Each structure stands twice: as C-alpha cells, then as structure tokens.
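Box 3.1 A note on notation
Throughout this textbook, protein chains are presented in two layers. The first layer is the amino acid sequence; the second is a token string describing backbone geometry. Keep the layers aligned when reading.
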Amino acid sequence: MSARLTGKVILITGATSGMGRATAERLAAEGAKVVLAARGKESGDTLAAAIRASGGEATFVPADVTVEGEMAELVGQAVSRYGRLDGAFNNVGAATAPGPLTDLNAGAWHAELVVNLSSVFYGLKHQIPALKASGGGAIVNNASVAGVTGQPGAAAYSAAKHGVIGLTRSAALETAPAGIRVNALVTGGVDTPLLRSGMGPTPEEALRAAGAMHPIGRVGRPDEIAAFTAFLLSDEAPFITGAALAIDGGMSAA
C-alpha cells in the first residue's frame, strides 16, 4: 500500500459504514491520521480501535453533521487533536423522501436538503479555514450520480445532489488561490448496507437489481470509491479541482 498520505490529517463524515468506512480504512492504510465522524459512538469507537490495531492512527468524534455547531466542534477537535487539518471527505447523505414530487411536503423536502446539501455546506464552511491555516489541502464531497441526472421519484434527493456539485465548484473557485482543491464524486450504486436493504426483498436481489442499472453490469465496491477518494486527497492530483468526477459504472454516460 502506498504511503502517499503520510502525515496528513483527514476528516471523514459518515465514517462508520459503507463508503465512509472503506475510505477511512484506506486513508489510514496510506498513512493518514483519520478523524472519524458519525452519530453512533459504539460503531465509531470500534472502527477507530480496529484502525489503530492495524497500525493506523484514528480518532472518533461523535457528531451530527446536519447541525452546524456540531460540524464546527468536529473540525475544532480534529485541529486540537492533531494540530492541523489537510483534507476532508464529506460523505453523509441519504434518500429520505421518495415518491412523486407533487406528493412531497415541505418538511420532507427540507429534511432531504439538510442531510444531503446543508451538511456539505457546513463542512466546507468550517473545514476551509482549517485547511487554509495548514497551508492548503483537498476536500472531496460525495454527490452521487443523482447530482448529474434526473431521478424520478427522488426529486428532493436529486436537487440536493445537484446542489452539492454547484457548491463544490463555487468552493473550488473561491479556495484555489489558497492551495485548496475541492472535488465531487459522481457515484453510482455501491454495495453498502443501505443499498442492500433498500432495493429488493433480499440483499442478493437488491444487488442484482441495482447492478442491472449500470452499463458495466454490477454495482461498485466501497473499496473502489475509497481508492479514488484517496487519490483525490493526495498530492498526486494537484491539477484537479472544481470537478464532478464519475465513478459510476457508466450510469451517467448512459
């Protein structure tokens, strides 16, 4: 495994399962000091302990990143613990308001925007000053293929993820002079507990149904997302910023 992230302090939200967990493990294996954030303390402490047992450096901070004050505290704790912040993976998101647009009520609409878009805004708002103080760095926001395509039955989710890409581009332009790169992932279906439980009567049928939606014929693996995220957060991607980068098995091309 490469040691290209050695010495870098990187914050990961939604860190205890799926893409967040795989990315935390990958970054730590590449030498990063990872600050893990999620709401579940037990799972967070368990993951941090497992990373340390494997020779990595990890700290878990329980946080609800849909609350700005908790995001601010999370970034503050990362800097207090390690003295700097070099990168972040804003990974929290969920489809919470399925159904036709005309059936959406205002509460469901706003809740969807908070978890998928406002959480990224809060992250950028408080991560960017910390990265500036460290001399620069990189941020990756998880936007989803819903950020570049329409999603019938998921209007609020698609709107929020389109917003993540717009936010990413604006942040990239504002922070480029400070040596900060900001990019978004356009992820397709990924084999996570959420996908397995939400797309079919059994996990196996859910995977088959989701895989059939991808030209490549399968869903992605969390470790594939983790590897690409590690690259974007490393010094091997110095000329990439403001981009919405597809890692989606061809979904957005179709």
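The chain has a mean pLDDT of 94. The longest helix spans residues 106-133.
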